[in-house]
Amino acid sequence: MKKICLLLTVLAANSIIHAEENPYLPEAKLQDAKVSTWNVGAGFTKKLLHGNVEWVNPYGIAYAKVGAFLNGDNEPGAQVGFRYPYYLTGTDKNGYYIGAYAGHIQTKIINGEEKARLGAGIDLSYVLLDAERISTFSVGMGAGEPLKNSQGETIEKTEPTIQFSYTLSFGL
């Protein structure tokens, strides 16, 4: 019994020490950035014209986009995502960011109605970041959910899709 208690104590102490030195957390590359924490703006993502909100934190940029698709019936759409600074250039925090996104990626007409298609993907961005604004050029690769008509036939399969995006935001 004493050996088991000693073993459990050692394991518990080891896990506490390991939690303090977590090597799995990403590096906080934007910790000393002189930028506005909250930013609002507008942009264009594939055929989605949107307004966006961006949150700059020490680990990257989180964003939410809400707007309408420019084709068909102007179906509403939204996306959320996060970008992590991969390689910074220059004195500001400009550079290449890698990220992930999820939300509406396109629209498709099914049974005479336009439906927004949900999907997710990864992207590579070049971000121009300074004290007044964030300007982002992005190329993403993702896939959307399969879409079926009222007879259960698959109209749109899950296939890779490319997404180009530009956003411009200003600090609050």
Could you characterize the architecture of this molecule?
- With 172 residues, the chain is mostly beta strands.
- The chain has a single domain, classed as Beta Barrel (Porin), CATH 2.40.160.
- It has 1 helix and 10 strands.
- It has an 8-stranded antiparallel beta barrel with strand order 1-2-3-4-5-6-7-10. It has a two-stranded antiparallel sheet with strand order 8-9.
- A hairpin with a 6-residue loop joins strand 3 and strand 4.
- The longest helix is centred in the N-terminal third of the chain and has 19 residues.
- The radius of gyration is 21 Å and the shape is flat.
- It starts with a helix and ends with a strand.
- The model has no long low-confidence stretch (mean pLDDT 87).
Major pleated sheet: 8 strands, antiparallel, barrel
Number of domains: 1
Q: CATH class, please? A: Mainly Beta
- What's the Cα radius of gyration? 21 Å
- Helices and strands, in order, run as HEEEEEEEEEE
| Beta-strand share of residues | over 45%
Question: What are the low-pLDDT stretches, counting only 5+ consecutive residues below 50?
Answer: none
Number of alpha- plus pi-helical segments: 1
Tell the overall outline: flat
Q: Largest sheet, order of strands side by side? A: 1-2-3-4-5-6-7-10
Quaternary state of this entry equals single chain
- What is the SS-derived class? mainly beta
User: At the third CATH level, what is the topology name?
Assistant: Porin
Terminal residue distance: 61 Å
Please identify, by name, the CATH architecture: Beta Barrel
Instruction: Assign a percent range to the helix content.
Output: 10-25%
**How many β-strand stretches?**
10
Task: State mean pLDDT (0 to 100 scale).
Answer: 87
